[in-house]
């Protein structure tokens, strides 16, 4: 096997941090911006849809989406995301990262715009149309997960790689910070112009007819940032690692990277052929399982467990805020006022808890390391969710609403300064170039399976505001976080090492191989094959 790294790969690993790295973060992060924007807005939009299309005078209560409709409006995008991750992750390894990268953005733009349209006036047709386009919006978002992570990991140098991959993911935080004011401003403008009476004063006119425009506008605005970055995404060249290792063209890799990064690379034909031959094994092979099996199990299980908790927090906060006293009860306000107050409460939690967590990871990931941040995050989430679960009756009283909000915000902070960021970073670093995008896709899809459990399962516990059920949900989430802590020990630290050293592509045996391989003779026991 090759005994040392290719010059083209070494040049990428040691290249100084340049302006293009920052540009790549913004271009690659736009899918996550759209993902977070959509996740934020659908929570507020779903409440509005319930009041607009599902009001029943016999109940003497504001309209509410039926459990099944609510689960599908929110969950269908997750089904799309899981599908998109697997399809585009596989295509990214087969056709190249660059060839399919623009398609994900086009899907996001078109489907975000179409999410605001309806083919018909009935509740059934409105919800049906929304679900259809949200599935394909999720499909595009899903494709961005493996492609953006892989592209950023293959562009970055080894000393700042984790920070840059984490920064791509931290665009979720920027998306949330953007979504809050958009949702608040649009609902407030309509509230000033067309504001209705509270529900307990006028059951019919408390749901403003003009509110039907609000959810559509909010949904469609999410397409704009993705549209703006399309041109720049199309200008990105194929990654040097894919061009050199998979296509076997080191010269083209040097030319591509020379266009965007200030580095000089010489071609090296013989070593390239040797390097390529050493890494031909497919995903479904005993060689792959021996080298990377434990790491793949580790990245899939931790992301799965994390997303059960993370999406449960995001999707259920609209139901928990009225209990916490951060938003008024639906009976005492109009539909648009409810949307404004829910958006405001979500924005405050995001600004003080969610957003800082992402950037703490960016700043500390190269100092503390991925492994320790993930362990710390899972542990702290377990502690805070267990406290909320055990002390829920005490915390939900009006006098203690700020203690409740603080604990709730801290779970968001340590999710993002913790496993929500690191489960995204690690699969982009642990696996070889030939299957990197697919392995990241498998890990991310496993996460979305966890998110679907949250959308179709955990939400059932919180939708009615039942105290006993919410307590049970919080305790359940504390247990999943504890399991995430345990499964983290299946992955390894990647800080400060080249991608080829981590994956064993450079001829070294990686950690998993050393654990699973048979004892070697003395003359082989120097770490080389």
From TrEMBL:
Q: Which reaction does it catalyse?
A: phosphate(in) + H(+)(in) = phosphate(out) + H(+)(out)
List the GO molecular function terms. symporter activity
User: A Gene Ontology biological process annotation?
Assistant: phosphate ion transport
**Record field: transmembrane:** 72-91, 100-119, 125-143, 164-193, 213-232, 345-365, 371-390, 402-419, 473-492
Q: What is its main location?
A: membrane
Biased composition annotated in UniProt, kind: Basic and acidic residues: 500-512
Q: Which UniProt keywords apply?
A: Cell membrane, Membrane, Phosphate transport, Symport, Transmembrane, Transmembrane helix, Transport
Give the InterPro entries listed for this entry: MFS_dom, MFS_sugar_transport-like, MFS_trans_sf
Localization (cell): Cell membrane
Where is the secretion signal located? none
Which stretches make up the Major facilitator superfamily (MFS) profile domain?
A: 24-496
**Could you tell me the superkingdom of the organism this chain comes from?**
Eukaryota
Q: Is Nucleus there in the keyword field?
A: no
User: How the protein sits in the membrane?
Assistant: Multi-pass membrane protein
> According to the UniProt record, where is the region Disordered?
500-529
| CDD domains given in the database record | MFS_PhT
Any GO CC annotation of this UniProt entry: plasma membrane
| Transport is among the record's keywords | yes
The family line of this record is: Belongs to the major facilitator superfamily. Phosphate:H(+) symporter (TC 2.A.1.9) family.
Q: What is this protein called?
A: Inorganic phosphate transporter 1-11-like
According to its UniProt entry, this protein's organism is: Nicotiana tabacum (Common tobacco)
Which gene holds the coding sequence for this protein? PT4
């Amino acid at each position: 096997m090759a005994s040392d790294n290719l010059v083209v790969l070494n040049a990428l690993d040691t290249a100084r941090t340049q302006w293009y790295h920052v540009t790549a973060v913004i271009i690659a992060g736009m899918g996550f911006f759209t993902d977070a924007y959509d996740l934020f807005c659908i929570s507020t939009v779903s409440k509005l849809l319930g009041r607009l299309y599902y009001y029943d005078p016999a109940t003497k209560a504001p309209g509410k989406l039926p459990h099944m409709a609510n689960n599908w409006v929110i969950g269908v995008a997750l089904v799309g995301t899981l599908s998109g991750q697997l399809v585009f992750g596989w295509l990214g390894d087969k056709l190249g990262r660059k060839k399919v990268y623009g398609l994900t953005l086009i899907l996001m733009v078109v489907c975000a715009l179409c999410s605001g349209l309806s083919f018909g006036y009935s509740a059934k047709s409105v919800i049906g149309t929304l679900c259809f386009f949200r599935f394909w919006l999720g499909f595009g978002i899903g494709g961005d997960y493996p492609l953006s992570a892989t592209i950023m990991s293959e562009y970055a140098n080894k000393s700042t790689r984790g920070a840059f991959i984490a920064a791509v993911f931290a665009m979720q935080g920027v998306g949330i910070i953007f979504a809050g004011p958009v949702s608040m401003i649009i609902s407030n403008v309509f509230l000033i112009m067309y504001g209705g009476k509270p529900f307990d004063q006028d059951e019919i006119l408390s749901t403003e007819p003009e509110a039907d425009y609000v959810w559509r506008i909010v949904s469609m605005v999410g397409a704009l940032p993705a549209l703006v970055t399309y041109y720049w995404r199309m200008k990105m060249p194929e990654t040097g690692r894919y061009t050199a290792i998979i296509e076997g063209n080191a010269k083209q890799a040097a030319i591509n990277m020379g266009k965007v990064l200030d580095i000089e690379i010489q071609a090296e034909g013989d070593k390239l052929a040797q390097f390529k031959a050493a890494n031909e094994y497919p995903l479904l092979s005993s060689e792959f399982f021996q080298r990377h099996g434990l790491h793949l199990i580790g990245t899939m299980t931790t992301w799965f467990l994390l997303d059960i908790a993370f999406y449960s927090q995001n999707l259920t906060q609209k139901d928990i805020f009225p209990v916490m006293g951060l938003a008024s009860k639906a009976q005492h306000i109009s539909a648009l006022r409810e949307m404004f107050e829910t958006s405001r409460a979500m924005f405050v939690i995001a600004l003080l808890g969610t957003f800082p967590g992402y950037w703490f990871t960016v700043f500390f990931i190269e100092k503390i390391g991925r492994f320790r941040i993930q362990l710390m995050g899972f542990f702290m989430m377990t502690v805070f969710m267990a406290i909320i679960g055990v002390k829920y009756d005490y915390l939900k009283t009006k006098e203690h609403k700020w203690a409740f909000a603080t604990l709730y915000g801290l779970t968001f902070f340590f999710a993002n300064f913790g496993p929500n960021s690191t489960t995204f970073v690690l699969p982009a670093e642990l696996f070889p170039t030939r299957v990197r995008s697919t392995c990241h896709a498998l890990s991310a899809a496993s996460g979305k399976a966890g998110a679907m459990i949250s959308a179709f399962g955990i939400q059932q516990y919180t939708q009615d505001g039942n105290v006993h059920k919410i307590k049970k949900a919080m305790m359940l989430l504390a247990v999943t976080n504890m399991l995430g802590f345990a499964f983290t020990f299946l992955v390894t630290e990647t800080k400060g090492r080249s991608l080829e050293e981590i994956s064993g592509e450079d001829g070294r045996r990686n950690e998993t191989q050393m654990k699973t391989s048979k004892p070697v003779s003395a003359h082989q026991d120097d770490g080389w094959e």
